[in-house]
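JOB MANIFEST
job_type = single_chain_structure
chain_count = 1
residues = 709
[input]
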Amino acid sequence: MSTQHTAAGAPGETGADGGPERVTLWTPSPERVEASELRAYQRWLRETRGVRTESYQDLLDWSLEHLEDFWESIWEYFDVIGTRGDGPVLTGDTMPDVRWFPGARVNYAQNILRRAATHPDDEAIVGLHETSPRESLTWAQLEGRVGALAAWLRAQGVGPGDTVCAVLPSIPAAAEALLACASIGAVWSVVGPDFGVTGIVDRFAQIEPKVLITVDGYEFNGKRIDMRAQSAQLLEALPSVTAHLLVDQLGAVLDAPATGEPAGAARGADARTAGAHTGAQAASGPAPRLRPTAYSQVIAVPQAPEYEATEFSHPLWVLYSSGTTGKPKGIVHGHGGIVLESLKANRLQQETVPGGRHYSAVATTWVVWNLLINSLLSGTTIVVYDGSPVFGAPDKQFEICGSERVTNFGTGAAILTLIERSGLSPDARHNLSALRSILSTGSPLPDSTWEWAYAQVADDIHVGSDSGGTDIATGFIGSNPFDPIVRGELQGAYLGVEAAAFDSHGRPVIDEVGEFVVTRPMPSMPVMFWNDPDGERYRSAYFDVFPGVWRHGDWVTKRPGGQYVIHGRSDSTINRGGIRMGSADITQVVGRVPGVQASMVIGAELADGGYYMPLFVVPAPGAEVDEELRGSIVAAIRSEVSPRYVPDEIIAAPAVPVTRTGKLLEIPIKRVLQGGDAAGVNRATAADPQVLDWYVDFASAYADRGAER
């Protein structure tokens, strides 16, 4: 057995210095360390560059002291397909005014599909559903579908820089469409189908898509979800769209009367084609503005892709993030930065290996879906699933891991905690012998869940809790294959990431809670924000607090050895289930409900791993926050935002707390909800201190109840 469990003290005890006891849960065996890609990279550096390092910290130090040499070595070690050019690795001295690999050309899709030439018959993508049959695509089939779809996009007039938007669940077609767009230099953007029309339009209208890709329907929690009426509404709201591609996943099944048979029983080419032709007219709602083209017809005849030689920072995709005001911001990443960061993160940090099998329990809206697709760069097989994460049993995710012989499993911390609390033992119920690692993200992993994973999942796996985000489409801190796993701690910074914790004066602190910052640039930092020609929105999002330093918006403690503890968001962003949403996205919808005068929503990560999301509502004159109004608010959030963001409580409030300049005081209330000191709330900033006191009293009472549980 290659596992080593060490506990210097019982959980809850204090160490010799008075701090919390550090409990080592797992240590990789020497054999596993020597077989890792990271060790092979170390040997390559020694043989080709004369760089001698032993520990992970040695290698991290070298990567930071020689940042340009490090990223040049990643390009060379992984033999990136592209034109390197003779420009420098990096120009510019201060973030965000830097440029990576000027003159180089790289295509994301080309670097992924290179495996079709060497392993054409190996599985590339497995598609799973609640009841419909398993789908399997080889690398050759994936390449042929991508080429056919890319040719169709070109025929619609889509070229480099044009945008293609999709509303799709996590199915093989979503991955195919992303790769097809990337192959021709088009810009991709996707959200999950659980988003309401308003939430989708707020994102897509900004980037003016030329093509819209939607799905006719999918299965979720035992039900068939018909998406055709939504597609018609989106086409009306997005006048820039000139072509509509309909992924005919359920087809005629959607029009059949409800029976006791499984939702996907009539799945097949004929059913899919029939559904595409009768689609939106058969569904309730308006007829479509554009006649849809059936996806199954477009990919029927495979073609070899023709790759556009895109400039290193040419836009690859648009992801979305929000602060507390305004519409979601479009975050643009480039081809080259994503290729390099993904190879580093997957191969060196997370041990995703060629021929392995990677499954992530994610929706397409969450950046972790992009990270799952990125793992194709490693030559691994990916598994996608569009059903409920708990369909049939709380440990559905481990059922998938067992049946598909998954080696690398990625998920949100909340899913693991849910399974833990169900009382089920995945190890006893499923064959998890192939599993090598679990990567948890989205929120801090509770101590009890760390211990549960080793007791009830497998005792010889790497359980990593990594932190990154939509903003960089990779990780900042987290896993490495050399160091032990210590309960509650992230192992350290990724290679090439100069991370720190800053106090309010911008000074690095150790063993104190501080703002998580990055002081040197990374290749996958955004190329730009959409519709931000002077870069002002980009600068204000990350660099307004500490000029030239990336402030991410997390509270962290950096340990003396370089490990990190994440405490949750330091801003007011809603982060439910790992998918970030601006509070304004929700309150704008709530504000349109008759009877609502004002509202404020807070999302608070709790010490026990829970997440508390109250909505405070100020009723309009003559109205009251009764069950009828609560029902209207919930219905509005479900239909216009997403069921994911229905609050835990809807609470009548006297007013919303604002500063003297009219900004919502969400962050201090959130900190008190999380157990922070109510005495530390600055009443002098409030326009009405009595209103602020009402919220502080509510938050203190909630925190006290949590401490008693």
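[summary]
The radius of gyration is 25 Å.
The longest helix spans residues 689-708.
exit_status = 0
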